[in-house]
Design brief:
By secondary structure, the chain is α/β, with parallel strands linked by helices. It is built from twelve helices and 20 strands.
């Protein structure tokens, strides 16, 4: 989104205000050109011939976005059997889907295995059970490298107290399970966290995984997860994927030479591919001034975008309706009936009731984490593709809220049946 001739436009020239007027607010808008730019940027960063990008679809599971990524050649990383089914529906073949859940039952692994996906196991108990049920089956195991990385404690997944992965110190136990069950370890996986700033930390984790790989002679691939940081504000630090790609390619080639054959190098970005493509549009309901604060209350809340409240996440915000107005300071809040704050003391061009505000970096972990809290409807999603806007999810209605509720009349007691009060 950029300012041109006094109006905010999307990259293809579409007017932001016209899109908001056409579909109403609140509204998620995604730009396919930006997704493709990010996908190609990541693919081109690695000089490994057998490099594969698997989209971590928990970031955004809209079927049309999945279809686009499938058409560009991406694989799919899924954390639930439901995401696997969505991937199949979007056109991904099972062999291009990696099933990487956490703390799920053996039955869910069995369902994914029956479909034919790649299986990634992150605890010894399930590895042993699955190996006993399917001796000789090919699986991947998720290793916890005991490295603290990530932009927030809630998205750091590779440290010593994390629930994710099998500790590197449990490798002897893993090897005993492999020997006793006959299960075939075809892949190794790690994911240290999201919003990783220091490439060197990531590379150190990679070296740990290379060390673990020496214990498994029949590997076919190594998956280094993701966690690449995108910029959230002007001059923000982001992961230099070109530098990282160049360095990891050299290290991976060296590892493959020592291993004795070429393996597939895999990554599973989510936020990196779709975050910057998304814009969240809201309408200002009320300007409320207190003794010390000017609130801009909008027609959305943590039910539609929980990241600021959940992760203290920063989303840049612009007043689309008044791009050249004087600058004032606002705290942007939502309409949910509890503390519901998007941003504190932000500099915006003067906001009036009815103005459209645009939140950047809204393509990942925004709609996918949305809810119907306060019985609010979830917003629609629009995809801009080759200069045209397409509604890819309609706005919810009251009928949607009621669709799963049972409507049979309960045999409620009448007033005559009420117990007498003493």
């Amino acid at each position: 989104m950029h300012l041109q001739d006094g109006q905010y436009q999307f990259t293809g020239g579409e007017s932001v205000r016209e899109i908001a007027a056409k579909y109403g607010t609140p509204l998620y808008v995604y730009e396919a050109d930006i997704m493709y730019r990010q996908y190609r940027r990541l693919c081109d960063a690695f000089s490994i011939p057998n490099a594969r990008i698997y989209y971590a679809c928990k970031a955004n599971t809209n079927l049309q976005i999945l279809r686009l990524l499938n058409s560009w050649g991406a694989g799919l990383d899924c954390v639930s059997i439901q995401e696997v089914h969505l991937g199949i529906k979007a056109g991904f073949t099972p062999e291009n889907i990696l099933f990487t859940p956490n703390c799920v039952s053996l039955e869910e692994y069995e369902m994914a295995f029956d479909i034919g996906t790649l299986i990634n196991i992150d605890n010894i108990s399930i590895l042993e059970q699955f190996g006993q049920a399917h001796p000789g089956a090919k699986v991947c195991i998720r290793i916890n490298p005991h490295i603290m990385a990530g932009g927030n404690s809630k998205i750091s997944t590779g440290h010593i107290d994390s629930k994710f992965g099998i500790s590197i110190h449990q490798l002897p136990h893993v090897l005993r399970v492999v020997e006793s069950t006959g299960i075939h370890i075809a892949g190794l996986h790690m994911h240290t966290g999201s919003d990783i700033l220091d490439v060197e930390v990531f590379l150190n984790a990679c070296d740990i995984l290379f060390g673990v790989a020496a214990s498994f002679p029949d590997l076919e691939y190594i998956d280094f997860g993701s966690g690449f940081k995108v910029p959230y504000k002007e001059d923000d630090v982001s992961t230099d994927v070109e530098e990282f790609g160049q360095e990891i390619s050299k290290r991976f080639e060296k590892f493959c030479r020592s291993y004795g054959r070429d393996l597939t190098l895999m990554f599973e970005p989510g936020k990196f591919l779709v975050s910057e493509s998304g814009t969240f549009l809201v309408r200002t309901n009320v300007i409320k001034t207190t003794v010390s604060t000017v609130f801009a209350g909008v027609d959305s809340g943590l039910n539609h975008m929980i990241r600021p409240m959940f992760y203290n996440a920063w989303h840049s915000i612009e007043n689309v309706s008044n791009p050249e107005g004087r600058t004032r300071i606002y705290t942007i809040v939502g309409y949910i009936c509890e503390t519901d704050t998007f941003a504190v003391d932000r500099k915006l061009t003067e906001v009036h009731e009815g103005d459209i505000l645009a939140f950047h970096n809204a393509g990942a972990y925004c709609y996918s984490m949305a809810s119907n809290y306060n019985s609010r409807f979830r917003p629609p999603e629009v995809l801009i593709w080759k200069g045209k806007d397409y509604l890819i999810r309609r706005r919810e209605t009251l009928e949607d809220l009621l669709a799963l509720q049972q409507h049979a009349s309960l045999p409620l007691p009448s007033t005559e049946d009420a117990p007498e009060q003493e």
